[in-house]
Amino acid sequence: MKFATKTIHAGQPSEPETGSLIAPIFQTSTYEQEGPGEDKGFNYSRTNNPTRQRLETILAELEGVEYAAVFASGLAAENAVLQAYLRPGDEIVIPNDVYGGTYRILNKVYQPIGVTIKQFDVSNLEALEKAITSKTKLVWIETPTNPRLLIYDIVETVRLAHAKGALVVVDNTFATPYFQQPFELGADIVVHSVTKYLGGHSDTIQGAAMAKDLKVFEPIKFLQNATGAVPSPFDCWLTLRGLKTLELRMERHAENATAIANALYGHPLVKQVYFPGLPDHPGHAIAKKQMTGFGGMVSFEIDGTVADVVSFVKSRRYFTLAESLGGVKSLLCHPATMTHASIPAEARAELGLSDTLIRLSPGCENAKDLVEDLLEGLAQLEIERKSTKAVAVSAQ
Ligand SMILES: Cc1ncc(COP(=O)(O)O)c(C=O)c1O
After folding, report:
1. 223-to-103, 123, 227 alpha-carbon distances in Å
2. Are residue 346 and residue 211 in the same domain, yes or no?
């Protein structure tokens, strides 16, 4: 079954009792039992629910494995993986560029209980090899990363981690299984903020963790029920609905991102464009090797001040200023004060995360409209600059 067919057919037969083409939302907390312990495979909706089960089946299929567990948010899924595999005295390796919430949970929740976090440029494979020790339980990468869209080599990371007995977790939120299949490249666990492209419509918060081996999956599945951060049946249904157009949406997101990256590249008010599809992006060759497309996100640095950035992000017509990404409606954000504000300013500077960086999540609108909106914003900045200069000159 090809990808688009899976998104519509995998684990989604018509409902057997009524023939309903689309599965109902099993909005129930519990299930009638014929005798004590005699249930039909469901006994309590924290433990299992038919709507959630459908979603887990399709998400596992899309990542090419058997096991998936969905959670009430991407961070709840991340927490289940971290809680399953990290104990005091253990180490985890993470890249410089990582989602702010991942940085926060590690530094504020796991580091205080005695987990060592080794954060550095993991694309330096020599440094990565040295950093992984017998105490390293997890090597955690995001690729492409949030927000600079850096690319890490999954195959090489897996090779070095497995040589020392560590598991590799890939946050596949930005690429989605449509553009990247981390398990085929050797990853042990994949996590997602389902909130983003998988849900696709900015109307639900959810997360998922998938694994290839039952042994690796079992502790995560156990924590799904034991700690209870599960999504509602309605949220699962929204994602089931969103997933049916994943391929169509990802194609459009990528087309729009490419048009935007090309339009911003070389603009006099743009210092740098981050998009793995650009031939001079440092991760371009690896992205070409391990992805089937470059994804739908673009980030860029304005050659100006934070005030310029604020003026730009506040006045766009089609890009709404908001956290999150991956929906049909375009969004933009200022990572330094929004998604990555949980990383202290000094740490952001050290990690190379500029205060004039803007992250774009192009939606599924028409590319021309989106490009025009951004170029108009830059033209407006130019006008503002000229008038400030003119005022300064006349004041002299
Ligand atoms: C790459 C990445 N991973 C994980 C998360 C966390 O997901 P959620 O917001 O659904 O908890 C996010 C959220 O922005 C993200 O961008």
Report:
1. 21, 31, 5
2. no
Indicate if 283 and 228 belong to the same structural domain: no
For residues 210 and 262, give the distance between their C-alpha atoms in angstroms, rounded to a whole number: 35
pLDDT of residue 152: 97
Helix residue spans in the chain (DSSP H): 3-9, 50-63, 74-85, 100-104, 125-131, 154-163, 176-179, 214-227, 233-243, 246-264, 284-290, 306-314, 345-351, 367-395
CA of 297 to the centre of ligand 1 (A): 14
Quick one: pLDDT band at residue 111, thresholds 50, 70, 90?
very high
CA angle 27, 33, 36 (to 5 degrees): 140
Residues 209 and 279 in one domain: no
Strand partners for 359: 299, 333
pTM over 0.90: yes
> Ligand 1 centre from 139 Cα, in Å?
18
**Structural domain for 67, as ranges:** 3-243
Domain total in the chain: 2
Active site residue 196: yes
Residue type, 101: G
pLDDT at 305 over 80: yes
User: Is 171 noted as a catalytic residue in this protein?
Assistant: yes
The ligand 1 atom at the shortest distance from the C-alpha of residue 324 is: 14
Q: What are the φ and ψ backbone dihedral angles of 351, each rounded to 5 degrees? A: -80, -5
Residue 78 alpha carbon, nearest atom of ligand 1: 4
Structure tokens at 52: 């959630």
Residue of 171, 188, 235, 373 with catalytic role: 171
User: Which residue's CA is minimally distant from atom 11 of ligand 1?
Assistant: 74
Residue burial 284-307, b: 16+ Cβ < 10 Å; e: rest = bebbeebbebbbbbbbbbbebeee
Angle between helix 246-264 and helix 367-395 axes, rounded to 10 deg: 30
Same domain, 116 and 228: yes
Ligand 1 atom with the shortest distance to the CA of 77: 11
* Average pLDDT of the residues in 212-233: 98
Q: Is the C-beta atom of 351 inside 6 A of ligand 1?
A: no
327 CA from centroid of ligand 1 (Å): 13
Phi, psi of 365, rounded to the nearest 5 degrees: -70, -175
